Q: What sequence folds into this?
């Protein structure tokens, strides 16, 4: 949990599984972290205007950006751990999204990468929709 490393930064954690959300609340309580835990699906909650968005094992990149974009601002930074297929996910996502990207080696998956995205915006379709 990033908030353990950065307890000075308030964070919002979104978890759709009620059991996992209860666990997160207990960790937050015991460690006295400045976190809010929302037990709901990301697509159902109010926009968060997040400075940083991170998600692990939620969806392929193109779908993940679709879920996360409504919670972002133009300045939002996305930090996204991705597995061995990260390059294919990036190629597919670039068909629907524009973004600046840096990659960093994963500490937990030799074939994976951490994607750092900025300036994320949906590509306008040719039909104008």
A:
């Amino acid at each position: 949990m990033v908030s353990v490393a950065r307890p000075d930064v308030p964070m919002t954690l979104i978890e759709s599984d009620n059991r996992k959300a209860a666990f997160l609340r207990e960790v937050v309580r015991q460690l006295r972290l400045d976190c809010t835990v929302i037990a709901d699906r990301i697509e159902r909650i109010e926009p968060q205007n997040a400075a940083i968005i991170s998600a692990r094992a939620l969806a392929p990149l193109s779908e993940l950006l679709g879920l996360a974009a409504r919670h972002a601002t133009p300045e939002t930074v996305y930090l996204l751990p991705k597995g061995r297929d990260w390059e294919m996910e990036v190629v597919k996502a670039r068909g629907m999204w524009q973004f600046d990207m840096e990659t960093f080696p994963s500490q937990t998956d030799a074939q994976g990468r951490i994607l750092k995205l900025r300036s994320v915006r949906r590509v306008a379709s040719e039909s104008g929709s």
Remarks:
- The chain has a mean pLDDT of 91.
- The first strand starts at residue 11 and ends at 14.
- Residues 18-31 form the longest helix (14 residues).
- Helices lie at 2-5, 18-31, 61-68, 86-94.
